[in-house]
Amino acid sequence: xxxxxxxxxxxxxxxxxxxxxxxxxxxxxxxxxxxxxxxxxxxxxxxxxxxxxxxxxxxxxxxxxxxxxxxxxxxxxxxxxxxxxxxxxxxxxxxxxxxxxxxxxxxxxxxxxxxxxxxxxxxxxxxxxxxxxxxxxxxxxxxxxxxxxxxxxxxxxxxxxxxxxxxxxxxxxxxxxxxxxxxxxxxxxxxxxxxxxxxxxxxxxxxxxxxxxxxxxxxxxxxxxxxxxxxxxxxxxxxxxxxxxxxxxxxxxxxxxxxxxxxxxxxxxxxxxxxxxxxxxxxxxxxxxxxxxxxxxxxxxxxxxxxxxxxxxxxxxxxxxxxxxxxxxxxxxxxxxxxxxxxxxxxxxxxxxxxxxxxxxxxxxxxxxxxxxxxxxxxxxxxxxxxxxxxxxxxxxxxxxxxxxxxxxxxxxxxxxxxx
Length: 420
Ligand code: SF4
Prior knowledge:
The protein is built from 17 helices and 18 strands. The protein has about 425 residues and is an alpha/beta fold. It folds into two domains: about 290 residues, pyruvate-formate lyase- activating enzyme, CATH 3.80.30.20; about 80 residues, no CATH class. The N terminus is likely disordered.
């Protein structure tokens, strides 16, 4: 549903892990002993749950989802429930954050939510859990919201993407923008006040004025949180095919950069803090679940194609509903790695420097020291600082505001300093 959350939760492996994996591959890997060896001392306190159904495939989407076969929903929820019960031994402290993403979680029938939420609550819910569910505006009903709230859900992340029907059509995103407003109002009336909206900019055919209008339409709904991502043409998506055949054109780079800057400025003046490059929150409403990813903390996972991380061990559940349904215990895996220290550190840099809080430089240098790279990373950071790309404050490295547009280049430079 949401570009941001999906990207975080599902693309860590291919994006970050390079050729130096100390991999454990194969579908027969048993995750249980691997996790048991790490817990304690690792104490995962976040859980991501992936629901794989959508009622239509948006053209920009490369996330694992299948066009709904309602007949599979019941079986899926039974399997998910048993998987969650199998995760319980690893959640001694229950969950500080739970995030149900997809796919389109709100496509699951209300009676299935009623069946599955008490199990999730028994496994992981605490009084203070940040419990988010991704929602498609078309599928939000008061009946469903009441069930979600009764089950402990206190945060809704609504995939608005754009309020412009023409641009939604370009994305082949099937919802009526009016339903975003309706979903927000319904959520508030049901008692959910922590509301996030996802928006996409740099859509083919979008003007700066179009983007201004989308931002204003989103702000008028007074969300507590906004995720604003530039459109990416993911390989093998219908949108990428339309790009390669000239049916759509990429937006001019300068225009995209201007949209990025306009976003930061407008949301800043509206009282939102850019706590991550693409994520903005009213004070106290940062998404703690996503912060766990960016801070390289531990999280458990359930559902096909979901990725998990505990004490350096990373894995991805197989993106295959049939295999998932046929399995028992924890989900079958498609990947399971213990990345080398250099890869792990590169990953920490890549995620941590996206945050406005930055990354603790002493811990980076200590980790780099383990494989003899402390000096070179320190020198590279100093170079970046001299060039005005990086600041050091209270022992933390942060990207300067002026360098955010070239964040990938700067972070890439630091990561390259870790190369053998
Ligand atoms: S709603 Fe669209 S973007 Fe979200 S998972 Fe489904 S197809 Fe992908």
